[in-house]
Amino acid sequence: MGKTYERIDGRLRTFIEEQPLFFTATAPLAADGTVNLSPKGLRGSFVVLDELTVAYLDFAGSTAETVAHLRENGRITLMWCAFQGPPNIVRVHGHGEAVLRDDPRFSELLAHFDGIDPAHHGLRAIVVVTAEVIRDSCGYAVPFMSYEQDRDLHGRRFEREDDATLSAYFEKKEHIATSLDGLPGLPLPLPPMPG
C-alpha cells in the first residue's frame, strides 16, 4: 500500500509532473480556524525545482487563504491523484513560503516556469514548498476521469489587467489582504511585476 520516499525523483517525479491538476491544503494555527483546500491547474504553472523542492504560480483569485496561512505558519500539503492509468495518490507534506513579487528571489524562480505567460493570469506570488514527508497511497477509490484541456477563462479574465488595475481589483475583494480568519494575506498594493 503506502510508501514513504526520501526524495522527489524518478517515477514519482514523472507522475507529479504529468498530472494536469493538484490540490493544496493549508490551515491557520487556531483550532477553530478555516482549513483551506484549493485545486491548482494550468499547464506550466508547476515545477519540481530539486529533489525536495517544488513551486507553483499563485494566480489572481477571490481569496488569499493559502498565502495567509503560509505567512502565519508555513504548513502545506500538496496532493496529486491519478485519474487515468494505474491508481495512485501522492502527497507532499512540507513547509511553504509565498515568494512575493518584490522578493529578490522572485525573478530567478519565475525563470523556471515555461509554457505559460504569468502576466495573463494576474500572478501574485510563487509558492515554494520544501518537502518534509513524501508519501503515496493506492488511490483505488479515485474514479477514472479524462483531461480534455485547460480552461482559458482565467487567462482571458486577467490578461487585460496591469499592476495598477490588478491591485485595485484585489483591494475590492474582502479576503485578499486579510484571510477569512483575519490573518494578514496578500500585501497591498501589489508590488509591480519585476522586469
User: What characterizes the major β-sheet?
Assistant: 8 strands, antiparallel
**Radius of gyration, whole Å:** 17 Å
CATH superfamily label: Electron Transport, Fmn-binding Protein, Chain A
The secondary-structure class comes to alpha+beta
Give the integer mean of the pLDDT values.
96
CATH architecture: Roll
CATH T-level topology: Pnp Oxidase, Chain A
* Count of runs of 4 or more consecutive helical residues: 5
| Residue windows where pLDDT falls under 50 for at least 5 positions | none
Q: Fraction of residues in helices?
A: 10-25%
Number of domains: 1
- The succession of helices and strands, N to C, reads EHEEEEHEEHEHH
Distance between the termini: 47 Å
Shape: globular
Brief description of this entry?
The chain is of the alpha+beta class and 195 residues long. It has one domain: Electron Transport, Fmn-binding Protein, Chain A (Pnp Oxidase, Chain A), CATH 2.30.110.10.
Structure description:
- 27% of the residues are buried.
- This protein is α+β, with helices and mostly antiparallel strands.
- 19% of the residues lie in helices and 29% in strands.
- It contains five helices and eight strands.
- It has helices at 10-18, 65-72, 106-110, 153-158, 163-172; strands at 3-5, 22-26, 36-40, 46-50, 53-58, 75-81, 89-100, 125-137.
- The radius of gyration is 17 Å and the shape is globular.
